[in-house]
Every structure is written in structure tokens, then in C-alpha cells.
Amino acid sequence: MGLPRHPRIESLTVGTLLAEKARPESPVLPETRIADVLARMAQHGIDALAVWDGTAMPGVFSGQTWMHGCVSGIREDDPVSAATMACQVSAAPGEAVSTYLSLMQAQKAGYLAVIDAGRWMGLLSIEEMQAALLRHYESIFRELELDLKILFMQGTYSC
Question: In sequence order, which residues have a C-beta less than 8 Å from that of residue 72 and are 6 or more positions away?
Fold first, then answer.
């Protein structure tokens, strides 16, 4: 049995989910000081930022990576690349959220980098993707329920 779908509901893509975000944050360069990155994260109320120079696979700096860095002796004046975890999964905006969510869970990846033809689009957390997929499935189930109500409504014909 496949994933739930409905003809009146568009499939949920990575680009659709990214467009729902208030404002995707642009990545920081690997040589940016950790203190500056932490200040930016606090200012915008975000949990993580992508670390990307536009060439290699991006990394992610988060509160969790910062805590691990502190334990291993990394300081606020060090470059953010010193406390960055590799972003294992990236996708193009037109890809299905469900496909990448499964891949991220299998690889234990916390973030998905969205890159379109070498251009940075944004960063999605696994939690954001799970919540969006849940909302998407709920809307599909509501539409299916409406279809059944209409189909079996008194005075309507089902043939």
C-alpha cells in the first residue's frame, strides 16, 4: 500500500515546504566566528544554520554541535567550521518530502539541505518535515472523509 494521496491535494515537495517558512536563512561561510553565528541564531530565533561556501556539501551548525564543540575545547572565537556536522542529505526543491524524510531517518540525519542547480535554497529540519507531512496527510484524510460524506449523502446517486 502506498502513501495516501488525493486528486484535489497537491503532493508535498521540499520546495513547497521551504516556501512556507517565513524566511529561509542564508548559510554562513565556514570561516565565520562561532560567536557571530550564535548571535545571528539568537537574533532570528533559529536552532541551526547551514555552513556552506558554495562548493562542497554544506554542513550544519546547531546548538547541539556547539555543545559538543564546547566539550572538546572549541571556543567562540574559532571558525564555525570547527563545530559543524556534515549535512548528509540534500535535495532539489521539486523532490517529495516523504522520500527524503525516509532517507533522513535511515541515515539519522537531522537536516536537509535544499540546493537547486548549485544555488542555496534553504535548510529543513527533520522535525519541520515530519510536522508538514502530518499536516499534509491530515488534509488528505479530510478530503477523503468529505468524499465519503458526499457519496453516501441521502438523495445522491453513487453510480
Answer: none
